[in-house]
């Protein structure tokens, strides 16, 4: 006999992943386009309205992504801007950090991580779009989704191995202050 109140917890749905394609990078190396082609992300038009509800990764945001962003990301998704690091600039017209786009309070930067992609291997913070989205998923407690996202990319598994200690430490941070303290502890500066 079934009880009227179910105690079974419904499994969490995957966080929707979106990519805003700027189109100024090499299409053959564009991990954002590849994620879309593989069905692991959807293309989002800048200013399409979803950014009001989404967590948007913006390297110029003052606020880092923390566990506190899980609810927003679960409800509205996670969005990354795919553009060339060679042309990335805070003053860039239309870039989320420039005021040319309205992403509101959902803009978050990733904490300091080391790139493992072939173009920027070993560089601090110069992640490709796949690495950035996977790192965000990991920090939001979605490790399996992060692994799945990176599975078909050169350097994907290496990215997670190279950053495991940092990712685990950042994922435990429950506030911006805790995360910033973790960054300082891992990379100095205070």
Account of the 3D structure:
The protein has 190 residues and is an alpha/beta fold. It has 6 helices and 5 strands, in the order βαββαββαααα. The chain has helices at 31-37, 70-76, 129-139, 143-150, 156-172, 176-187; strands at 17-21, 42-43, 55-57, 78-82, 107-108. Helix 2 (70-76) links the parallel strand 3 and strand 4. Helix 3 (129-139) runs antiparallel to helix 4 and helix 5 (156-172) crosses helix 6 (176-187).
What percent of residues are in strands? 5-15%
Strands in their spatial order, largest beta sheet? 2-1-4-3-5
Shape: globular
Percent helix range: 25-40%
Rounded radius of gyration (Å):
17 Å
**In whole angstroms, how far apart are the ends?**
61 Å
Q: Main β-sheet: number of strands, strand sense, barrel status?
A: 5 strands, parallel
SS-derived structural category? alpha/beta
Number of strand segments:
5
Rounded mean pLDDT is 82
| N-to-C SSE string, H for helix and E for strand | EHEEHEEHHHH
How many structurally independent domains?
1
Total helical segments: 6
Keywords:
5-stranded parallel sheet; 33% helix; 6 helices; globular; 190 residues; single chain; alpha/beta
Fold topology:
Elements: E1 17-21, H1 31-37, E2 42-43, E3 55-57, H2 70-76, E4 78-82, E5 107-108, H3 129-139, H4 143-150, H5 156-172, H6 176-187
Parallel strand pairs: 1-2, 1-4, 3-4, 3-5
């Amino acid at each position: 006999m079934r009880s009227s109140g179910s105690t079974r917890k419904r499994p969490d749905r995957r966080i929707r992943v979106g990519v805003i394609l700027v189109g100024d990078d090499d299409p053959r190396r564009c991990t954002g386009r590849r994620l879309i082609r593989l069905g692991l992300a959807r293309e989002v038009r800048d200013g399409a309205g979803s950014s009001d509800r989404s967590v948007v990764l913006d390297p110029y945001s003052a606020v880092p992504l923390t566990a506190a962003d899980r609810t927003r990301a679960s409800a509205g998704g996670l969005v990354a801007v795919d553009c060339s690091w060679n042309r990335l600039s805070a003053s860039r017209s239309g870039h989320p950090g420039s005021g040319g786009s309205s992403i509101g309070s959902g803009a978050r930067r990733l904490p300091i991580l080391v790139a493992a992609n072939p173009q920027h291997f070993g560089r601090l913070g110069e992640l490709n779009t796949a690495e950035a989205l996977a790192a965000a998923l990991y920090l939001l407690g979605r490790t399996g989704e992060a692994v799945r996202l990176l599975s078909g990319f050169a350097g994907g598994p290496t990215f997670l191995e190279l950053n495991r200690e940092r990712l685990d430490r950042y994922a435990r941070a429950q506030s911006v202050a805790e995360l910033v303290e973790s960054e300082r502890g891992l990379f100095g500066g205070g």
